[in-house]
Write a structure and sequence with these properties.
This protein is α/β, with parallel strands linked by helices. The longest helix has 15 residues. It is globular.
Length: 502
Amino acid sequence: MAIREHSIYDCIVCNAQNFPKETALVSGDLRLTFAEVPFHVNCLARGLLNTGFEKGDRIVVLLDNCAEYALLLAACSRIGLIVVCLNTRTSADEMRLVLESTKPKALLFQTSYEQQAEALRDLLPARQLYSIDEASILSTSFDQFIDEDPSALTEPQPSVDEGWLIIPTAAVDGIPKGALLSQRNVMASVAIHLQHFGRESIKGHLAALPIFHVMGLTSAWATFISGGKNVLLKQFEEKLAVQLIDAEQLTYFGSFPPVLERVLDAAKESGSRLESLKLVYGLEGPQNIQRLHEETSAVFWTGFGQAETTAFVTASPAAERPGASGQATLLNSVAVVNEIDELVSTGEEGEIVVRGENIFLEYWEMTEATAYAQRNGWHHTGDIGRFDEDGYLWYVKRKAEKELIKTGGENVYPGEVENALLKHPEINECCVIGVADKTWGEVVKAICVCKEDSNLSLDEVRDFVGEQIAGFKKPRQVIFVEKLPHVNDEVDREAVKAKWGA
């Protein structure tokens, strides 16, 4: 490696020396100390090489949070493999688009996702599927990757500026973009965690958010690199979350609706005060933030970020400026610009643009999309916001061409849902919008114009959409109307929001 580089693997080795007996990872009944982690990583990395993987190969992961996921990420960082982190909640058809773009060499899955793995099998060379649970006619065992030699590898490490992870983003035009992240991107986000939250606040992490989301990913690495303990939740379950926070003395977790609300409800039901909890961060409604502050001694931090920025680029305690998205982190330049990329005045709305070491490398195999997003020396987020006189960012909305609904931490583009709806033979026209919801933050609402004499129901519409795209993208509310407002021969989305957005 270059003399000025320090990698994820270097951190693993350093932590084994600095905190050998401390618990690094808890996953179900498995507990690993920092001294044990490099041995597992070395065995896995050597096994991957022995199996025929080469630097730059892609391996797709379809897993819930588990030790195998974390160790695979570490092993791939050591030998230069690129991990494609599939969202387990997306449909097999959506996953196919990701595989067609990234052309992976293998797929690693757990048996609960065997149906999706079978549907993707034909996209893999030699149909290489590996199960972390048990081998079957469909798959080979994950154990095949494990070599018995735990000694350090002699192969050179990849640069920290090379691709390591691909995080598929929501599909704006029906095609998901794969945000390619480097080790440096993730290390920068780790530094932001440490500088703003503090080491004591992140020394015990409940990995409630999935690792395939950048918030779950960077929180886990921030805790590991700073010598803290990660407790992985395979699937979010609020009662178990409260039990683990108390039993393991965990200090923080990331949250999207409805995670925090359900944790607080479960804690109240069990009589827990979540004594060890110091911090929760993410996106939440004011009622749940207030409950956290009243019912625990923890502080809620809010911010702004996306997959392309490897998590937050602005952050502040929510109570400092309620409703705002925080101030620029110490490692980011954040600005608001007009349509010709000129800085706008304080209080004026414009597109949020960002610079910093946590900005993604590129959209995989999408040169033009990358150049457009990263034009004029800034990453253009596609979000509209404004700064107040004290430097707090206020999020306003998505740009019209990138209209976005944020439901339960997942991104849903209205156009994708509209395309699915319009395939129904009884729907002539539709408009999909996001409406506020106490539990989920926002939910998907569809306003549909149907053919004459149609008797479509909400459930029929939801089921039809769910057959094509991810379940979380299905409309929770559907309204049938005689006509939609138009401007310049197109549906007037803003007028639809004004009339049916409540």
